[in-house]
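Project standup — Tuesday

K.O.: blocked on the structure for the chain from last sprint. Re-posting the sequence here as requested.
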Amino acid sequence: MKANYLRDEKGVALVVALVILLVLTVIGFVAISTSTFEATIVGNERIGTDAFYAAEAIVEMAYDQIPDITEIPKTGEGEDNRLRVGATSFGWTGTASDKGNQKPITHKGLHTMPGYDSSFAFSRFSIQAAGESVGASREMDSLVSYGPFPAGTSYNN
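H.V.: unblocked you, prediction finished:
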């Protein structure tokens, strides 16, 4: 009698089990690589956020010293420690390229504001700040009005 190997289903369960095991292994590798990639993205976002907060802290420090327009030196680890956002976060006035040569706050002149007559004026200041953390850098620009203060001529009776 001839054996019909096509109708004999012995061993099919083993093949199906191996295919399912292969599919589950591929799904596991994809899940691990996706998790690793997502963790890298989160880490980079954290570093960028630290750099942003360092720049924001410099802008806040500049707000406190207006009308003094001197630059705020690079602050952070190893410096005067006025600014310490993260373990390796730094901030300074100017752009990211001004890291070693900080720029002063810029006085943009006088202007008037609605609701005030011409005997009052406001000073306008431009603040550029940069922050850096583990190689990532962020920049901020802020335009500030300072005042009111008496301006022009005033007549006393």
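K.O.: great, moving the ticket to review. Strands lie at 75-76, 89-93, 106-111, 120-133, 136-150. The two ends are 133 Å apart (CA to CA).
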